Amino acid sequence: MAPNDSVETNGGTRGTAVGRRKAARYIVPVAVAGVAAATIGLVPALASTGDPDLPKITAQQLIEKIAASDAQQFSGTVKISTDLGIPSLGGLAGSFAQGGGSGKGDSGADPQKKMTELTSGTHTLRVAADGPDKQRVSILDSAAEYSLIRNGDQVWAYDSGSNEAYHATEDGSGKKAGHPAPESVPTTPKALAEQVLKAAGPTTSVTVDGTARVAGRDAYKLVVKPRQSGSTIGSFTVAVDAKNGVPLKFTLLASSGGKAVVDAGFTKVDFGKPAASSFTFTPPKGTKVTEADDAKAQRKTDGDKGPGMFPGAEGLGAGGLGAGAEGGKDTKVIGEGWNAIAEIRTPGGIGLPSKASGDVPAEAQQFLDALGDKVSGKFGSGTVFKTRLVNALMTDDGKVYVGAVTPDALVKAANDAA
Q1: Which of 109, 139, 191, 216 would be 157's cystine partner, CB 3.0–4.6 Å?
Q2: Residue 255's CB: how many other CB atoms inside 10 A?
Q3: How many other CB atoms sit within 10 Å of the CB of residue 356?
């Protein structure tokens, strides 16, 4: 099928906030990891076996089909491959997300730590959902399985490798104690595809570019591209189920070329009702169980940042990349659209910790050194942290410039602001 109509949609913006003094020292690598984790989530499907002949559809009609999709029951297997051009994070990014280090309140089943492992390498997930109150995401590897389960107001995470569990209970307002439930984890196709579409606006091209056969189902290919030059993002391609409008496959390409930054999709999918047993969990005998409230209280006692969004990463997910961010009192946005750069002032003008300061664990310093390049200009000096998708400049006087733009664009923004 030849490409057809293009369409522009209204964009949205999200705010960026800065955490506490201690957490702020790690704002750049954590923000980068946060963006990666959020982007991965546009779940989808691999396995393509020919292009079906489907009725023509416009981009606007396909977007409306996604928005109107009411498929709330499904189960299947998802394969995610990520190449951000950064070292394997493992549990390190999760350690940053908690404000650095580990404490008595830490758990081997902590969702914040485990889910950041998806920001590098190739992973297989088993997913299931039965309406808004029952979801399950399991990360499979050769030696163990990690599962995050929501059943009503109960949220469990279990790591079979360490035999540890993490438990949270939803309060009366619908807010979970501790970490988010599976439906807010970046592995849900529809929610994350919608985030990309929210980033679309006058600076974005959205087209239908043919069809595909994905996980045994007919699909249309929706392609989202920046109209502006200078962005690190080349394009997003979302394969949308022709029958029910559910995104089945997601591919993110960098403007610099090369293999996909993120290639994720269902290898198998079933839109029938999953077995009720998928959403039940009882800790096996001998499991170490950490209660979210207890972990939060312990972190407060230890003086660490409690679980939650990465400091400096809010608003930098898939939906925030193209649309910029709403600035708080310590944040402002330079430019617009896909070239928007968030300027963040850290509390007290704190720059990066140095080796000499003794504030940085050896593992963290290795991570910083692998990502960062020293730069200087009218603004002074600082360090640029690079990935294939998001780049960030942290100046020595405690300002952060971050966006899906080239390092040169960040240096220019810093010089212009000096």
Answers
A1: 109
A2: 18
A3: 7
Name the 3-class secondary structure at 318.
helix
Cα torsion through 22, 28, 34, 37, rounded to 10: -130
H or E, element range at 114: helix 111-115
Question: Cα 194 vs. chain centroid, distance in angstroms?
Answer: 13
Q: Who's near 408: CB < 8 A, 6+ residues apart?
A: none
Q: What are phi and psi of 241, to 5 degrees?
A: -55, 125
Q: How many CB atoms lie within 10 A of CB 67?
A: 12
Question: Phi/psi of residue 63, each to 5°?
Answer: -60, -40
Please give the sequence-ordered ranges of beta strands (E in DSSP) within 271-395, or none if there are none: 288-291, 325-327, 331-334, 341-345, 372-377, 380-385, 391-395
For the chain, the C-alpha Rg in angstroms (whole number) is 21
Strands (E) in 259-324, as ranges, are 262-270, 288-291
Which amino acid, residue 101? G
Q: Which domains does the chain have, with CATH numbers?
A: 42-188+199-302 (2.50.20.10)
Angle 5-9-13 from CA coordinates, rounded to 5°: 155
DSSP 12: -
User: Which residue shows structure tokens 């030849």?
Assistant: 2
Could you read off the pLDDT of 84-131 as tens digits, one per residue?
887 654 444 444 444 444 455 566 788 877 777 788 889 999 999 999
Give this prediction's pTM. 0.73
| Phi, psi at 123, each rounded to 5° | -135, 150
Measured CA to CA, the distance from residue 264 to residue 80 in angstroms comes to 4
> Residues in the chain with pLDDT < 70?
1-50, 87-107, 142, 171-195, 295-329, 347-371
Which residues make beta-bridge pairs with 391? Answer: 403
CA distance 333 to 327: 6
At 375-390, the pLDDT tens digits run 999 999 999 988 899 9
Q: Is 229 exposed, middle or buried (0-12, 13-18, 19+ CB in 10 A)?
A: exposed
Contact of 354 with 381, CB cutoff 8 Å: no
